Amino acid sequence: MTALFALATSLLWGLADFGGGLLTRRTPALTVVVVSQSIAVVVLGVLVVATGGWSEAGPQLWFAVAAGLVGPVAMLAFYKALALGPMGVVSPLGSIGVAVPVGVGLVLGERPGVLQFVGILVAVAGVCLAGGPQFRGAPVQRQAIALTLLAAFGFGAVMALITEASTTLTGLFLALFVQRVTNVAAGGLALYVSVRRGAPALPAGGFPWRSLPALAFVGLADVAANGTYSIAAQHGPVTVAAVLASLYPVVTAVAARGVLRERLRAVQAAGAGLALVGTVLLASG
């Protein structure tokens, strides 16, 4: 179950990142974050009411609030990085944040088996190589890398926090709802400050109504990924769940190749292959 839900997380995050990266090329990143997460809040609110999730309220929801504060910073940094640099390069670097939940798992006493440990090393190396690392170039490229590293550790912190925010399915709906409400509040405040400083909140043509389905997909896919990761981490070793969930950059790179025709270099193809080998080792261990 851990491997299945963690791989589902990778698929959902990978597609959400691809969609978010495309949207921020036409719409300010803060607006993408606020609108997409607002749609997720509405859907989650309906789920909480329908399942009676309010009964699961407790002190553990502070973990969801913390995740909600860190999340918008990470998403904003990552979407800006995706808009600045090739998705196939930026996205894999974002997986470095896996060090946060893996470290938490090790501190809590988890000890992967030999096969799983090898799988972790192979998968992480593969994901990093899947980006075809490019640390040389124009200042824009260096800025994209800096933003990606900031986002990576933010995403890792969110993964660790949301796992602690619930222990039941209905509690998970409530935790995700609280996280997203906090996301929207923090992102909305940042958007307000940005507009007061003269930055545009919308593209030149006004609100991108045609992009509303894509914004909804990004918000819902992102929240679903948080949910599947939480389930994966609660039903198996966090070290394994976190690494399998971190394979999402491969999905983003493949989507960029298929839709945007971004060419994969030999090192990227090799990295994707290593990530697949690491996944098999982790799942079989």
UniProtKB/TrEMBL annotation:
InterPro entries: EamA_dom, EmrE-like. SUPFAM superfamilies: Multidrug resistance efflux transporter EmrE. Residues 3-130, 144-282 form the EamA domain. The keyword Transmembrane applies. Keywords: Membrane, Transmembrane, Transmembrane helix. It comes from the Bacteria. Pfam families: EamA. The chain crosses the membrane at residues 28-49, 61-82, 114-132, 144-163, 169-193, 214-232, 238-259. GO terms for cellular component: membrane. Belongs to the EamA transporter family. This is EamA domain-containing protein. It comes from Streptomyces swartbergensis.
